[in-house]
């Protein structure tokens, strides 16, 4: 019942360089070091997903199997990016997990209203972040069936 986690590409949308580094290290510590790419805001995320600008080459910007999305980013925040992803017929099947410092009920409700697949408040410590990402990986890569890119594009 598990997915082939070695083929799942993770795209992290996070504006804070320290948080990007910590999340990448936590994914590696939790043995979820699949291919990981990062973008710094919602506009860059949409450019990546639509293969625009520096992401025009699909080989260097493969379709992600999972998006980890911060809510509070410059230029285009995570809420607006989530809305665009889930309203786009070619992108909406990509699972999106909000990974944020917010615990605000409004953010949680709005994210689920916009179609997020999971909302996770970032743990404070690195070890807790690694534990949380391990649990997410166990769920998303071992239990859940994810659409393969060809199926998603059909």
Automatic annotation (TrEMBL):
<feature type="domain" description="Response regulatory">
    <location>
        <begin position="9"/>
        <end position="137"/>
    </location>
</feature>
<dbReference type="InterPro" id="IPR001789">
    <property type="entry name" value="Sig_transdc_resp-reg_receiver"/>
</dbReference>
<dbReference type="InterPro" id="IPR052893">
    <property type="entry name" value="TCS_response_regulator"/>
</dbReference>
<protein>
    <submittedName>
        <fullName>Two-component system response regulator</fullName>
    </submittedName>
</protein>
<dbReference type="Pfam" id="PF00072">
    <property type="entry name" value="Response_reg"/>
</dbReference>
<dbReference type="GO" id="GO:0000160">
    <property type="term" value="P:phosphorelay signal transduction system"/>
</dbReference>
<dbReference type="InterPro" id="IPR011006">
    <property type="entry name" value="CheY-like_superfamily"/>
</dbReference>
<feature type="modified residue" description="4-aspartylphosphate">
    <location>
        <position position="70"/>
    </location>
</feature>
<keyword id="KW-0597">Phosphoprotein</keyword>
